[in-house]
Task: inverse folding
């Protein structure tokens, strides 16, 4: 049953009444409304009668009791706040924070040109945050079970991500769910009924989501999908579950993109992807299709997108943002050759990152901002790396001399300079 404007609903834990304001949307499980307590406005997902089950209510109560993943990564999940009921009604719903849709967009809105398309560096940030948050969820022992474009929103200008519809989150390989995923994002073993939702099926859906974000296309929508006249459940089962073949499979070309203007965007955007990103997608949709143990982990995606964002560079001719991938670079927009800036090599015990030292480039380790490329305000020809940490850095110059770089001070941007930044070793190279 639908709710009416002005109707009173009850928050069980908060023990207060809320007023329904307006309907915001609906999906397969129910409808979403804005509600208010007089001071604050929230979102309410109100389940359809067939979804208002005892098991679903227990699942929401478990999520309320346990809470979401911790830290910055966990804060991106729009986690349930309370169970919502109506007097003398079996139906129920749950309360959650309200998203500012003027700042955040769904991928479909961007693809329909209703919201601005993110730049390539911002796409890296969006992709990094998505992988980072699902990694935190999985490390907490949960699986999401319905990773799809419709459940993720992002700010196209900043790359900030929010993950919605968390009511189907459950304990990996233990708790049951009324939802097994969106068919386009489901792993073949789910579609064929050979497995239950798990972290491994989440990893498959995550790869499909990231491919959609970058290529604006489904990884299996090629000649085989193009030749199907009735796009029904059996057809989807065949393309996604029985014979899933990657449209850019380097060996098997049975499902390559058709020669049709409707498919040109996918081909164009695939060429925007740097070779290292294309390689991960190829692994995800060849080796990772039938072998869950070979799927790309959230950590691999996270490391790659941080690296690519660190290597963003602007074309001096047309100002388009490009991503350098350790090879000669021509602008994707105007094809002009782009000179590569000096690089900072960051090395710790587990990984190595390369950062192009372009104007105002921010320097991160994992998700912590540690420095930024700056110009000397008294002499713009002199460049440096400002220490944005709270600790002192040690700078070792090529002639063997040392200097302490205090917080908010800058180390000179000189080839051969080495920096000791806590446990991280850094060096400026050509």
Result:
């Amino acid at each position: 049953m639908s709710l009416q404007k002005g109707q009173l609903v009850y928050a069980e834990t908060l023990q207060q009444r809320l007023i329904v304001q307006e309907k915001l949307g609906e999906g397969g499980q129910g409808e979403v409304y804005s509600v208010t307590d007089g001071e604050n406005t929230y979102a309410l997902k109100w389940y359809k009668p067939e979804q208002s089950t005892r098991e679903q209510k227990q699942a929401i109560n478990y999520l309320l009791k346990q809470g979401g993943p911790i830290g910055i990564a966990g804060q991106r999940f729009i986690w349930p706040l309370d169970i919502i009921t109506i007097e003398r009604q079996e139906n129920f719903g749950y309360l959650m924070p309200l998203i500012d849709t003027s700042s955040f967009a769904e991928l479909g809105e961007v693809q329909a040109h209703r919201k601005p398309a993110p730049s390539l560096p911002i796409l890296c940030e969006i992709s990094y945050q998505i992988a980072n948050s699902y990694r935190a969820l999985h490390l907490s022992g949960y699986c999401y079970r319905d990773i799809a474009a419709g459940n993720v929103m992002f700010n196209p200008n900043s790359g900030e991500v929010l993950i919605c519809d968390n009511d189907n989150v459950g304990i990996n390989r233990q708790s049951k769910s009324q939802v097994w995923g969106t068919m386009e994002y489901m792993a073949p073993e789910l579609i064929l009924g050979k497995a239950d939702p798990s972290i491994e099926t989440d990893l498959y859906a995550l790869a499909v989501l990231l491919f959609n974000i970058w290529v604006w296309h489904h990884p299996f929508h090629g000649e085989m999908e193009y030749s199907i006249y009735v796009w029904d459940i059996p057809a989807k089962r065949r393309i996604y579950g029985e014979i899933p073949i990657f449209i850019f499979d380097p060996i098997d070309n049975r499902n390559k993109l058709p020669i049709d203007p409707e498919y040109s965007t996918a081909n164009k955007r695939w060429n925007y992807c740097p070779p290292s990103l294309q390689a991960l997608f190829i692994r995800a949709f060849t080796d990772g299709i039938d072998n869950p143990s070979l799927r790309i982990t959230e950590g691999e995606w996270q490391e790659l997108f941080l690296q690519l964002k660190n290597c963003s560079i602007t074309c001096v001719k047309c100002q388009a943002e490009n991503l350098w991938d350790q090879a000669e670079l021509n602008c994707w927009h105007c094809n002009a050759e782009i000179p590569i800036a000096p690089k900072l090599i960051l090395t710790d015990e587990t990984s190595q990152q390369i950062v192009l030292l372009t104007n105002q480039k921010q320097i991160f380790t994992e998700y912590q901002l540690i420095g930024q490329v700056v110009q000397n305000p008294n002499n713009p020809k002199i460049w440096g790396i400002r220490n944005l940490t709270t600790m002192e850095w040690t700078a070792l110059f090529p002639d063997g001399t040392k200097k302490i770089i205090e917080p908010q001070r800058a180390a000179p941007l000189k080839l051969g300079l080495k920096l000791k930044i806590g446990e991280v070793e850094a060096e400026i190279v050509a």
Observations:
- The domain at 8-97 is CATH 3.30.200.20 (Phosphorylase Kinase; domain 1).
- The mean pLDDT is 93.
- The chain is about 25% helix and 25% strand.
- The first helix runs from residue 54 to 66.
